Amino acid sequence: MISSRPDSKISARNFPKIDLGVQSDQTAERDNLELELQNRITRLNDQARIFIPLIALCLIVAIPIWSKSLTRFVILLLSPFVLLPLVFCVAHLTLAWRGVIKAKARLRKWDMKQETSEVEPSSRIE
Fold this sequence. Notes:
This protein is mainly α. The chain is 77% helix and 0% strand. Helix 1 (20-68) packs across helix 2 and helix 1 (20-68) packs antiparallel against helix 3 (80-118). It is rod-shaped, with a radius of gyration of 28 Å. The chain starts with 19 loop residues before the first helix and ends in an 8-residue tail after the last helix.
């Protein structure tokens, strides 16, 4: 059960007036940025779980060819059956990594904006 306290010091005028609409918008924006960052990190982890073993497998298969002749190894790497999947894996990992970096930067920028907006104008150095 909820009990009420008969305290005369607590009233609606004693509480600071806060614009709850603006505050909820700000928290929702930060939550969206954090959710986007988590999604991008999850996507990067999923792609890395698939692509890194594929890249390692390509290198493991290429080691015997590399040990025999460097020219054969280069010819093998330039083959479209090896080059295209390898470039595909590396490109996907690079794009996912860039997305994580951008999301972190947006979150950092938002935090800095919030810190500067919390500082009173009279206390700022101009």
